[in-house]
Amino acid sequence: MMPTLIILIIQTNIGWVRYYQRDYTGAISDYQNVLHADPKFIPAQNKLWIAYALQGEPQNADSELNLLFRSYQHPGLAKEISASDTAESSSVVAT
After folding, report:
1. Contacts from 42-51 at CB under 8 Å and sequence distance 24+?
2. Which of 1, 23, 52, 80 is deepest in the core (most CB within 10 A)?
3. What is the mean pLDDT of residues 52-73?
4. pTM score > 0.85 for this model?
């Protein structure tokens, strides 16, 4: 049975409160629970990658951000951003 939209919204918002309390582990858990119920719930996807990044888990953040871009039907955008970041890093090191 698919949970109602309001339950997904409330659980995502609870995660957002935890995020603002800097309880990134709790926020990640809340967002994952929402995405377990509905893997395409974009508000939770959007917040999950940020929580991973602030938790110090860049690989998980990158993975979730790529999933988010795919949800928006922009799978190539992540590669472009990654290539841009690499080019900027290289130019900073060269100077």
Report:
1. 42/68, 42/71, 42/72, 43/8, 43/9, 43/12, 44/8, 44/11, 44/12, 44/15, 45/71, 47/12, 47/15, 47/16, 47/19, 50/19, 51/15, 51/19, 51/24, 51/27
2. 52
3. 89
4. no
Identify whether the C-beta of residue 68 lies closer than 8 Å to the C-beta of residue 46. Answer: yes
Given a cut of 90, is residue 54 above it in pLDDT? Answer: yes
Predicted local confidence at residue 70, as pLDDT: 80
Say whether pLDDT at 50 is over 70: yes
CB 48 within 8 A of CB 36: no
The DSSP annotation for 27-79 comes to HHHHHHHHHHH-TT-HHHHHHHHHHHHHHT-HHHHHHHHHHHHHHTT-HHHHH
